[in-house]
Design goal:
Elements lengths: L4 E10 L8 H14 L3 E17 L2 E14 L3 H10 L3 E8 L25 H7 L8 H15 L11 H14 L1
Antiparallel strand pairs: 1-3, 1-4, 2-3
Length: 177
């Protein structure tokens, strides 16, 4: 039965015990597992040896490899099982879908950099952002009186604490002991 192919992204870290010359053979073996299962490797990106954020199996660095794959969903578990038992692969992550990432930092375009042309009613927008008009003199003389009235309000007293309930709890604890 022909199964639909799903897209995956596979990131794995090759052990530092594997020489730089033989990392290519590890990549080929992982690719062979994918192709033997009826899938295809779309891209392979060897990031090279990097320092790990935290030790993995007592190693502090490893070679990062990123693959984009297309394979049947039924082959995801066998691929992960092969990566789990491989002593050459320290850690792996297989995710559904391909995450598009910019290749270089300079190629990245932010949405806020591309702005539309100014609108015809721009002066109206500037008028809306103008400060509020000054308060008339009659309203200004009433405002301090209202503020003074608010400041003379007395604070509300807190309800009295129930001392009986606090005194009973230690007595009960003492009688239990």
């Amino acid at each position: 039965m022909d199964q639909a192919l799903k897209e995956y992204e596979l990131v794995y870290i090759v052990s530092p015990r594997v020489a730089a010359d033989t990392v290519a053979s590890v990549i080929e073996r992982v690719s062979a597992v994918v192709t033997d299962g009826g899938g295809e490797v779309l891209t392979t990106d060897n990031w090279g040896r990097r320092r790990l954020a935290y030790p993995i199996k007592r190693f502090f660095e490893g070679t990062y490899v990123v693959n984009t794959l297309r394979m049947p969903a039924s082959q995801a578990k066998p691929l992960e099982a092969a990566l789990e038992i491989s002593e050459e692969v320290l850690r792996h992550l297989l995710t559904t879908g391909i995450i598009q990432q910019p290749t270089r930092r300079g190629d990245r375009r932010d949405d806020d950099r591309e702005r539309p042309a100014p609108m015809a009613d721009a002066p109206t927008a500037l008028a809306a952002a103008a400060p509020p008009p000054p308060i008339p003199a009659s309203a200004a003389s009433e405002a301090p009186a209202a503020a003074a009235a608010e400041s003379t309000m007395e604070p509300v007293a807190a309800p009295p604490a129930n001392d009986a309930s606090r005194d009973e709890a230690p007595a009960e604890a003492a009688s239990d002991a």
